[in-house]
Amino acid sequence: MVDRFISEFGSLEKDDFRTLRGVEEGMKTRDWVPVGDVSIFSGLPVDEVEYRLSRLGGLDLVVRRSMDQVRFRLDFGGYDVLALNVLVSRGVVDSLGGELGVGKEAEVRSALMGGSEVVLKFHREGKVNFRGIRRSRDYLGDREHFSKLYIAKLAAEREYRFLKRLYGEARVPEPYSWNRHLIAMEKLKGNELSRVTLENDPEFVLDLILDEVEKTFKLGVVHGDLSEYNIIIAEDELKIIDWPQAVETDHQLATKYLKRDIKNVVKYFKKKYKIDRNPEEIFKSIVNQK
Ligand SMILES: Nc1ncnc2c1ncn2[C@@H]1O[C@H](COP(=O)(O)OP(=O)(O)OP(=O)(O)O)[C@@H](O)[C@H]1O
Ligand SMILES: [Mg+2]
Q: What fold, for 2-74?
């Protein structure tokens, strides 16, 4: 999906971005933004905004609806180019590469900066099951109005914050920059644990993972979605990715998440490598050592 919007990126002008930001600003208080509001928030005259909006609509960067009056909103396409524009202007990325993973919660792709690889993670939380998220995610606070874009932005912010906090102490990719729902981070070598078969000493790898769980717990963080899909293994390195749902150890869900993280990993190594470990004992030893 990013491909389509990114291909338009080069053709966008300064006033297109101003218009997109005007729609974004209007969406802080309503789902659909009238043209007059876009004009006020962007600082552009109404006729210029009308021209820009119809152009951006043609590129699928804004969505138009005729209600009592014509109104607009941003979708992920427009949000993607706004975020990307900021990272380009910060000098974090200068060209885009291929796709690394597309799923429900994120679109991950490689990019280049001065010849070296960077990973761009476009968060997509809120795209599916918006209502479920609305009910369950405590990070929305008591704000009354929010769009799915806002939910994705909060998820990216959280992930970036946890990566920043852990990087240098735990085995996580280095976070470079963050804007809106987009994070730029280190491109890791290797593959998801689920896709490799550990030929020698899988037990050593299991211990490495459990050491990481313990270390991050000591640093005050629980991952909350640990599994063979969020562990990246290279020949000489292991990293844990995908941190937006992480919680502090004093969070009400921390115990539940920690137990589940340990269980997921232990279960996977039992099934695939016939290694028998007791998740309950591991949990106790981690919690008691803190
Ligand atoms: N820093 C990175 N370096 C290399 N590959 C990465 C990196 N981050 C993510 N990936 C790849 O992209 C995939 C998805 O990333 P991640 O797990 O962070 O997102 P997700 O929320 O699980 O997304 P989805 O719902 O699409 O699975 C990963 O499983 C991995 O293959
Ligand atoms: Mg993942």
A: Arc Repressor Mutant, subunit A (1.10.10)
Q: Where are the alpha helices (DSSP H) in the chain?
A: 2-9, 14-26, 35-42, 46-58, 76-89, 130-136, 148-166, 202-218, 254-273, 279-289
Please list every protein residue whose CB sits less than 6 Å from any atom of ligand 1.
100-106, 108, 119, 121, 173, 185-188, 192, 229-230, 241-242
Average pLDDT over all residues of the chain? 91
In this model, does residue 144 exceed pLDDT 50? no
Atom index in ligand 1 nearest the CA of residue 230 equals 17
Q: Which two tokens stand for residue 145?
A: 């109005």
Taking domain 191-289, whether its CATH number is 3.40.50.720 is answered by no
Is the Cα torsion angle 92, 98, 106, 238 positive or negative in sign?
Answer: negative
pLDDT of residue 139: 53
Structure confidence at residue 10 (pLDDT): 80
Domain 84-186: give its CATH code: 3.30.200.20
225 is catalytic: yes
Which string of DSSP letters, residue by residue, matches 157-223? HHHHHHHHHHBTTBS-PPEEEEETTEEEEEPPPSEEGGG----S-HHHHHHHHHHHHHHHHHTTEE-
CA of 248 to the centre of ligand 2 (A): 19
Q: Give 26-70 pLDDT, tens digit per residue.
A: 999 888 999 999 999 999 999 999 999 999 999 999 999 998 899
